[in-house]
Amino acid sequence: MTKMNNQNTKSWQARISEATDAIAQEFVESISYDWRLYRQDIAGSIAHAAMLAKVGLITETDRQAIEKGLRDIEAEIDRDGPKWSGFKPELEDIHMCVESELTNRIGEPGRKLHTGRSRNDQVATDLALWIRDAATKQLPAQLVDLCKAFASIAERSADVVMPSFTHLQRAQPISAAAEALAWLQMFDRDRERLSCAGRGYQTGLPQSPLGSGAIAGSSLPIDPAFTASIFGQMVAPQSSIERTASRDQACDFVFACAMIAQHLSRWAEQWIIYMSTEFGFITIADRYTTSSSMMPQKRNPDMLELIRGRCGNVYGDLFGLMTILKGLPIGYNRDLQEDKRIVFRAHDTISQCLIMAAAIVNSANYDAARIEPTLERGFLDATSLAEYLVTKGIPFRTAHHIVGTLVARCEKENKHALSQLGVEAFNEVIATKSDLRVDAAIFDALGAKNVVQRYQSAGAAGGRPLEEQLKEWKKRLGV
Ligand code: ARG
User: Fold this and answer.
1) Which domains does the chain have, with CATH numbers?
2) Whose CA is nearest to atom 11 of ligand 1?
3) pTM of the model
4) Axis-axis angle for helices 338-363, 302-325 (nearest 10)
5) Which end of the chain is more exposed for a tag (fewer CB within 10 A), N or C?
6) What letters, b where the CB count within 10 A reaches 16 and e where it falls short, cover 400-412?
7) Protein residue whose Cα sits closest to atom 4 of ligand 1
8) What is the pLDDT of residues 379-431, one digit of tens each?
9) pLDDT computed for residue 291 by the predictor
10) Which of 97, 99, 122, 121 is nearest to 110 (CA)?
């Protein structure tokens, strides 16, 4: 029988002549944050033990003791969280804390668990499994909640017509629902992007790192394909060196988070603008606003501003991770330990922002009464008028010129809308370019509300195409 380690002695202490310096100890530890990998670490160890038993490196009795011990530990951590008594900074990380506690409890079989593996393939495996869960379960569920919130505001705003903006200048009239569905579309694509990141962004199945050992694999007859099959949707490592050195999936994941952050930030900015007195297009519930300690009249969109601002943190996370990886020689390097801080932080930021965003959208309404009077400004129906002339056989470039001239004429005559011109005025300008003469039917193509009903191209911001979009989203989201 081998003598058991004292519980606080490191498994590798034999090689090092003195205890780790106290400052170094605090500096090197990662248990304060990588404890969050405990479920994945334990699942990895249970799979590894099953594999060791299968190939005859441990007995079935050993395997059972290991599994039982690990499940007990998992239940305790489920209960105690980061306060679990087995988390000891002197044991550095989740892998050593769990293994050391297991060995304290079950003795010799615990000492066999690390056969044919290293913390290097262990940590890569834990992180791969953690990201897979976050990217295909937790975050997608939050994205779906946000998408449902947009579908629902789209539905209750289907009759609200509003201006759209390019260059933040009035463009064409749209249904407010169409704008809500545009955001929905972005967040739905984020969900798919995340799921690709979670699955390792590749055509084949992702390769489980477990079985890669420290770098070169093992001379023992281990079966990494078997552990991969236990994880499901994974295959054996193709290169033990690459599997322990790569953090590609972490980069893909943080990039997907950065994209979500970007979309959230753009949406938040749009609504902050809409909430201003100048616009007044959107109202959100008071419970998502704050006031000012000095200006009693204030009603500030602080939650939206924080969502907009936190995007910067996630971009920082992405750059942080990419920079940590820059220049790293192939094989494991301790720099890689920093990846987890970043992955967790990017995840947490996104998760909190998504929950906040869904709550805000659910509380919001487009303010039809404020929007409606503004529709008369900005010649929103100009493009529609040009398209109407196209249906009468005028080339688009000519029609564009005619409408441009009509708009200029309105401005000169102090008219704020094309519909204020008479049929004679239309015909007078049209006559400079064409033999066409129009009648009162031309007014069907004018006015924001009419225009929105005339859209017929796929994906258009009103009319039948919008009804179809909304129907499709409701079906897909089950709302
Ligand atoms: N805590 C380490 C990390 O997160 C685990 C791997 C340590 N490996 C080593 N050879 N020191 O990367």
Assistant:
1) 22-115 (1.10.275.10), 120-158+174-195+204-215+240-373 (1.20.200.10), 375-477 (1.10.40.30)
2) 334
3) 0.94
4) 160
5) N
6) bbbbeebbebbee
7) 337
8) 999 999 999 999 999 999 999 999 999 999 999 999 999 999 999 999 999 99
9) 87
10) 99
Q: Which of 34, 37, 93 for mutating ligand 1's site (highest number of atoms within 8 Å of CB)?
A: 93
Atom of ligand 1 nearest to the CA of 214: 10
Mean pLDDT of 109-123: 98
Distance 216 CA to ligand 1 centre (A): 16
CA–centroid distance, residue 68 to ligand 1 (Å): 25
What residue type is assigned to position 290 of the chain? Answer: T
DSSP 8-class letter at 447: S
Question: Partners of 175 in the beta sheet?
Answer: 161
With a 6 A CB cut-off, is 122 part of the ligand 1 pocket? no
Buried b or exposed e, range 344-357, using 16+ CB within 10 angstroms: bbbbebbbebbebb
| pLDDT (average), residues 435-439 | 96
- CA–CA dist 371, 273 (Å, integer): 13
Residue 249's DSSP bridge partners are none
Strand partners, 405: none
Residue 353 has pLDDT above 60, yes or no: yes
At a CB cut-off of 8 Å and minimum separation 6, what does 319 contact?
A: none
Which is the closest atom of ligand 1 to the Cα of 340? 4
Q: What is the pLDDT of residue 8?
A: 53
User: H/E element holding 403?
Assistant: helix 396-412
Return the pLDDT at 6: 43
Residues 373, 377, 379: CA angle, nearest 5 degrees: 135
Say which residue the tokens 């606003």 belong to.
289
> What is the mean pLDDT of the segment spanning 310-338?
98
Tokens of 87: 């988390």
Residue 406 CA to residue 373 CA, distance in Å, equals 22
Cα of 109 vs centre of ligand 1, distance in Å, is: 23
Q: Take residue 123 and report the two structure tokens written for it.
A: 């940590």
Known catalytic residues are 167, 292
* Span from the CA of 108 to the centroid of ligand 1 (angstroms): 24
Q: Give, for ligand 1, the residue of 12, 100, 123, 342 to mutate: max count of ligand atoms closer than 8 Å to Cβ.
A: 123
How far is the centre of ligand 1, averaged over its atoms, from the C-alpha of 318 (Å)?
A: 21
Q: Which of 10, 332, 335, 344 to mutate to test the pocket of ligand 1 (most atoms within 8 A of CB)?
A: 332
Query: Does 27 have pLDDT greater than 70?
Result: yes
